[in-house]
Write a structure and sequence with these properties.
mainly alpha; extended
């Protein structure tokens, strides 16, 4: 296989940076909308929102690490899907929506 040119390597690196910025922006935007919703629609104050924000970060990292580890041996991440659905089913009860419907 031919070695990739320096120019193509540079383009790939720039794309990877853009992808990472987009991923971080999207994650932060989701968190921001959750915090705004909890404040405006549920009347949560700054202390509860701070705790939610901190717990969200920890929960996200826990599941992100699980997903990355799972993906090393299973591209479908069945273990992660099952764990996320298990927790959401417990939390959402009759309003639970399975993974395949949430991630179409």
């Amino acid at each position: 296989m031919a070695k990739q040119s320096g120019y193509l390597q540079k383009l790939a690196a720039q794309q990877a940076i853009r992808d990472e910025k987009t991923r971080r922006f999207t994650l932060q935007q989701c968190k921001d909308m959750m915090l705004i919703t909890m404040h405006e629609d549920f009347g949560w104050g700054e202390e509860r929102l701070k705790k939610l924000s901190d717990c969200y970060d920890q929960t996200f990292m826990t599941y992100a690490e699980m997903c990355l580890a799972d993906a090393k041996t299973d591209k479908q991440i069945w273990f992660t899907q099952g764990k996320v659905d298990e927790r959401l089913k417990k939390a959402c009860g009759k309003y639970f929506v399975p993974w395949d419907e949430r991630y179409r």
